[in-house]
Design goal:
Layout lengths: L1 E2 L7 E7 L7 E6 L7 E11 L1 H8 L10 E2 L4 E8 L11 E4 L2 E3 L5 H4 L10 E2 L11 E5 L4 E2 L6 H4 L5 H12 L6 E5 L3 H12 L3 E6 L2 H9 L4 E4 L4 H7 L3 E6 L6 H8 E9 L11 H5 L4 E4 L5 H12 L7 E5 L3 H10 L5 E5 L2
Parallel strand pairs: 12-13, 12-15, 13-14, 15-16, 16-17, 18-19
Antiparallel strand pairs: 1-6, 2-3, 2-5, 4-6, 4-10, 4-19, 6-7, 7-11, 8-9
Helix pairs in contact: 4-5, 4-10, 7-8
């Protein structure tokens, strides 16, 4: 294994999920060693995502026994190589996203859908993630971070930014058409900016008036409070040619159905814990399409990083020390976070 001086350190600090719903335990644990197809990354910044909340609560229980190191929005420097000869070198700044790896040979992998591969492994779920000082990642899944993006800006792009970009593309809205974006947390904020870059009219929808003000500042054309009248309010504005939902609640589902114009696409990205129901005629009679969107593929990640490097999209970042990880999770659960929380490592 090729390594630098830091690889002599045999331990690291990590936040361990030791029981579902319990505070993460900040402990010193053995530092991982990269396999031949991996690199070791020293983490500079790590984003906190609502998927981490789902795992922490046990909504999506980890496949292996606890403890688990969660986290899948990491950015850092390569400090060791599992083997010589790869495209990465020590010192490269890379990003670690939700998809740790996939089979590489199935239909999904060969057609740009590796994030839907039946054998893909998720960072911070199937394998140890980025809530630690060091993490291993497969070199072919490393996202090189362009110059000009700070680690705290780049970290949320590894999931939130890329997922927002992939979700927007699935709506297939065209310049001049209207997109209703439900949920104006970090993903929604990225989606507003991405949609406006594409010449789309944006209606931002959220229960929080302050988040709607932020959305307006980011370029949203109209804002609507997500109450029971939201669908009618959107129809009064001309209706939506596409909807995307980033809110992790089922209450947005009937609002989107009411907001849609005929033949609109509804893209579901946020994962509610509750079951979502509808009458078939609500979809059939208007020719609506409902599409799921999870994470992103590598090309979408590359494209969203290029947008950020060019200063065309920018996250609303709440920077916090790694020791405050439990507070960051609590704030995310309580809905008091404006934008994305990013943990930093001193």
């Amino acid at each position: 294994m090729s390594k630098d001086d830091t690889s002599q350190v045999q331990t690291m600090r990590a936040a361990l999920l030791t029981g579902y719903g319990a505070p993460l335990a900040l402990e010193t644990v053995p530092r991982p060693m990269p396999k031949a197809d991996e690199v070791l990354v020293k983490i500079e910044a790590s984003g906190v995502c609502f998927t981490d909340v789902h795992i922490w609560r046990g909504d999506h229980a980890a496949p292996d026994p606890l403890p688990l190191i969660m986290g899948h929005e990491g950015v850092g420097r390569v400090v060791a190589l599992g083997a010589e000869g790869g495209r990465l070198k020590i010192g490269d700044r890379v990003g670690i996203g939700y998809v740790f790896g996939a089979c590489g040979h199935c239909k999904e992998c060969l057609t740009g859908g590796e994030n839907y591969c039946g054998e893909f492994d998720a960072t911070g779920f199937n394998v140890s993630g980025c809530f630690a000082e060091y993490v291993c990642m497969r070199h072919e899944w490393a996202n090189l971070i362009p110059e000009g993006i700070a680690p705290t800006e780049a970290a949320p792009l590894m999931c939130a930014g890329a997922a927002a970009y992939a979700s927007f593309r699935k709506t297939a809205v065209q310049p001049g058409e209207t997109l209703a974006i439900f949920g104006l947390g970090g993903l929604g904020q990225y989606a507003v900016q991405i949609a406006k870059l594409s010449g789309v009219r944006v209606i931002a929808v959220d229960i929080n008036p302050e988040k709607l003000l932020t959305a307006k500042a980011l370029g949203a054309d109209e804002t609507v409070i997500a109450d029971v009248q939201a669908g009618a309010s959107i129809q009064a504005l001309g209706g939506a040619d596409g909807c995307v939902n980033f809110a992790p609640v089922a209450a947005t589902w009937p609002l989107m159905l009411a907001a849609c114009n005929p033949r609109a696409k509804i893209v579901l990205t946020g994962v509610p814990a509750d079951q979502m129901t509808f009458y078939a005629h609500e979809v059939i009679e208007r020719g609506l399409q409902v599409i799921g969107s999870s994470a992103s593929n590598r090309q979408e990640m590359t494209e969203v990083l290029a947008l950020a490097a060019g200063g065309k999209i920018k996250g609303v970042i709440n920077q916090r020390p790694f020791d405050a990880i439990n507070e960051a999770l609590s704030d995310l659960i309580n809905g008091t976070v404006e934008g994305r929380s990013v943990l930093t490592f001193e």
